[in-house]
């Protein structure tokens, strides 16, 4: 199957101007000013890209693909993510994880859902662990999960949060060491993805580990960084990656990211949606007083605010959900870019930055604003 996109403005995410792009099966095979290519059999789709933008498929590295929640009882457990929820908002790659609950929900279920999303045409990975420590796992060992389960690329833990296990500095360092060694063995990033709450410790334990052990700062990946913003800026200034959560106030998140861009290297900043996770609201004495839910649509909405409200060039605004996160997870140059030999994960935007079409692994999943891909049980 060939797809030829003609005369489209390519942001790869760097601005490449007007180009033709040729896709064969699940790979980009050529990007050039003009591609003369014909196919005398069925299997060539030509897309007119005039007046539109072509950008890499979005990567969301913090998604509750089997649903999160549970802070307000079993009824508050959130349903699983559907493949079409991702495609509709331009997301072609996800990293799934557990959250507060690792009792009703399990790593087994998480891995199974990751496999299902792959079968439905997306690119998907996941993390072992949850908020809890010792970490919940599939094999009984964090290291073995990372080393032997192809979908698992790291481990999740919670720090500085009243729902966490209050992991000690030594336990966190040991967890990072296990993940790193297993990652080296399996040629995976072996990251420690850290839910970071508003607790008193902030990043103090993580920074102490980085300053006083030989574990690289790149092993630790704090998310929800607005909860400890100043600590996050220090972490990024020392070379670490920090991950913003788009949240419900996407304009506010974009503004905070734009401020961070003035203080830390932009290639250390990523963005994720926390889709299908819960957004509980706590009183000062840690009582639940409200509940919200993470939504996939907020990911690119934040990028639009960066470009429109914060006046970032779109090529720069796109990096936290394309090339930067791909590099951080070890997916680059297969993901997060538009180059020959890269995966054919592509998003076509209209000139008003609304989503037009989505190609995932070389298959057209959304065209002219209509999602054409189907969930397994859709319509039954």
UniProtKB/TrEMBL annotation:
GO CC annotation, single: cytoplasm
EC class name: hydrolase
Active site: 274
Cofactor(s) it depends on: Zn(2+)
Cofactor note: Binds 2 Zn(2+) ions per subunit.
Positions with a binding annotation for Zn(2+) 2: 156, 195, 224
Residue sites binding Zn(2+) 1 per the record: 62, 64, 156, 274
Residue list for modification N6-carboxylysine: 156
Keyword field contains Protease: yes
MF (Gene Ontology): beta-aspartyl-peptidase activity; hydrolase activity, acting on carbon-nitrogen (but not peptide) bonds; metal ion binding; metallopeptidase activity
PTM annotation, UniProt: Carbamylation allows a single lysine to coordinate two zinc ions. Carboxylation allows a single lysine to coordinate two zinc ions.
Subcellular locations according to the entry: Cytoplasm
Main location: cytoplasm
Keywords: Hydrolase, Metal-binding, Metalloprotease, Protease, Zinc
SUPFAM superfamilies: Composite domain of metallo-dependent hydrolases, Metallo-dependent hydrolases
Pfam families: Amidohydro_1
InterPro entries, per the entry: Amidohydro-rel, Metal-dep_hydrolase_composite, Metal_Hydrolase, Metallo-dep_Hydrolases_sf, Pept_M38_dipep
Single GO biological process annotation from the record: proteolysis
Ranges for domain Amidohydrolase-related: 54-364
EC number per UniProt: 3.4.19.-
Biological role stated in the UniProt entry: Catalyzes the hydrolytic cleavage of a subset of L-isoaspartyl (L-beta-aspartyl) dipeptides. Used to degrade proteins damaged by L-isoaspartyl residues formation.
Family listed: Belongs to the peptidase M38 family.
UniProt cross-references to PANTHER family, sorted A to Z: COLLAPSIN RESPONSE MEDIATOR PROTEIN, HYDRANTOINASE/DIHYDROPYRIMIDINASE FAMILY MEMBER
Protein name: Isoaspartyl dipeptidase
Phylogenetic lineage: Bacteria, Bacillati, Bacillota, Erysipelotrichia, Erysipelotrichales
Recorded name of the encoding gene: iadA
